[in-house]
Structure formats: C-alpha cells, structure tokens
C-alpha cells in the first residue's frame, strides 16, 4: 500500500460525517478517517442511480474506506461496512442527536488533521444511543465531555477553578466550575451535590457501568443540556 504523501491507494477505517450530491450526479462524502483526519471523498456517479454504494455512503456509516488519492482529490473506491447505525433512524430524537454530534465533528475538527482519539468517543456514544433507553441528554454530556478530555481541555469537575477547593456543589459558569465562595453573584448553572456527582459519573463511568446505572440519575435534563452546551462552546471558542 502506497502511504507516501501524494497519489496512491489508501485503506483506512472511518465514519461518514456528511454527504452531498452534485447536480451532475456525483456524491461527495466527508469522512473522519483514522490516521488522516476528516477528508472529502468523491464518488463519481454515485448519486445518479449507478448505485454501487447503496446506503453505505450515508452519514454515521462506519467501515473501512478504500480510497484513491489523485493529484487533486481523493476518490472513494469501496467501503467495507462495519456498522451503519441504521436503527437510530427509526427514532427522530436519536437520529437528530447523532447527526448533531456528527455536525460538531465537522465544525470543530480540521480537514486533514488526524484525530484518532475521537473515533472511539463517537462510536461508543452512538452505541449508547442505539442500544438503550437511557437519557439522551446524559449521553450528550458524556460525548462532549469525553471529547474535551481527549484533547486535554475538559473542565475540572473535582476542584474549584479559582481556589482549588474540593467541590461538593458548584456553579458552572463561563467554562469552569466554581465553589460557592468563589462564584459570588455570578450567573451560571447551579449544580447541587447530587447533580455534580451524576455529571461526574456520566463522564467517567465505563460504557457498561454507564448503561447499567444512568437510568437512576435524577439531574434535570435542562441542567444536563445547559452543561453540554457549555462544553460545545469550549470547542467552538477553540476553533
Ligand atoms: Zn473556589
């Protein structure tokens, strides 16, 4: 396999983040590829009914992508599909959330810059959505927090950002958590002891424990969603 920069064949695992069809009947897919980062791959004629790829070029399809790197663009030759997450499409809220995560990956990663650490975060988050009735807001918090942690920019959930004191309850404001003393009259998300424990657990539990326990969490979905929005804003500010 030719792996030097420039032309040649390439075979990498990855996931389709978005796809778009041209008026001429060509399909382009934007794929987060292992070792290569996000890349556009062109599949000439694939949108016109000369369907070689079927549903395998749809967003959220995981597999091994066979690519030809031409002088100016990269071409999709084939896909060995590993998992298509098709069952998510039966639930409008689940598919909307999954597509939202894919959009974040499009927005907050750079084309051509490898980010292998995000592939398992995304994959296992989709598995959570697909395989259970657990709260999607918690899965969303977990997705963004694990993404930020893999980049070393997740907010500290244990200690006050200002004075370092161990947090039992906190105000989540700006991009960090503050203890009662340091937060003063600032505005933010008020996290009681129980809320903070559950956010920590949602971030750090292994996949199986999270599946087994998340049904017992009682933090309000508004708080979780607001906290996840802060995490997304951290990503937005960084890019
Ligand atoms: Zn403090």
Helix-strand layout with pairing:
Elements: E1 8-21, E2 27-33, E3 37-43, E4 62-69, E5 74-83, H1 92-108, H2 118-131, H3 136-150, E6 170-173, E7 176-178, H4 180-183, E8 189-191, H5 193-204, H6 207-213, H7 221-238
Helix pairs in contact: 1-2, 2-3, 3-5, 3-7
The structure holds zinc ion (ZN).
In total, the number of domains comes to 2
Biggest sheet, open or closed, and with what strands and sense?
Answer: 5 strands, antiparallel
State the end-to-end CA separation. 33 Å
Order of helices and strands: EEEEEHHHEEHEHHH
Radius of gyration: 20 Å
Structure description:
It is a single chain. This protein has 239 residues and is α+β, with helices and mostly antiparallel strands. The chain folds into two domains: 8-83, Beta Barrel (OB fold (Dihydrolipoamide Acetyltransferase, E2P)), CATH 2.40.50.140; 132-238, no CATH class. It contains seven helices and eight strands, in the order βββββαααββαβααα. It starts with 7 loop residues before the first strand and ends with a helix. It binds zinc ion (ZN). Residues 160, 162-163, 165, 178-179, 181-182 line the site of zinc ion.
């Amino acid at each position: 396999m030719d792996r030097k920069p420039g032309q040649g064949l390439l075979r990498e695992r990855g996931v389709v983040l978005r796809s778009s069809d041209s008026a001429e009947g060509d399909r382009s897919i934007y794929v987060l590829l292992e070792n290569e980062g996000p890349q556009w791959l062109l599949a000439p004629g694939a949108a016109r009914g000369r369907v070689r790829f079927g549903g395998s070029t749809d967003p959220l399809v995981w597999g091994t992508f066979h690519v030809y790197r031409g002088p100016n663009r990269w071409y999709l030759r084939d896909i060995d599909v590993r998992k298509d997450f098709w069952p998510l499409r039966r639930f409008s809220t689940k598919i909307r959330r999954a597509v939202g995560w894919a959009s974040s990956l499009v927005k907050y990663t750079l084309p051509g810059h490898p980010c292998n650490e995000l592939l398992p975060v995304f994959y296992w988050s989709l598995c959570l959505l697909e395989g259970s009735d657990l709260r999607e807001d918690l899965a969303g918090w977990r997705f963004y927090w694990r993404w930020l942690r893999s980049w070393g920019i997740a907010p500290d959930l244990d200690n006050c950002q200002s004075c370092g004191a161990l947090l039992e309850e906190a105000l989540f404001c700006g991009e960090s958590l503050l203890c009662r003393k340091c937060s003063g009259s600032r505005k933010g998300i008020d996290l009681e002891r129980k809320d903070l424990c559950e956010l920590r657990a949602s971030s750090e539990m292994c996949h199986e424990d999270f599946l087994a326990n998340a049904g017992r969490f009682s933090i309000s979905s508004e708080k979780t969603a607001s906290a996840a929005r802060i995490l997304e804003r951290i990503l937005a500010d960084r890019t």
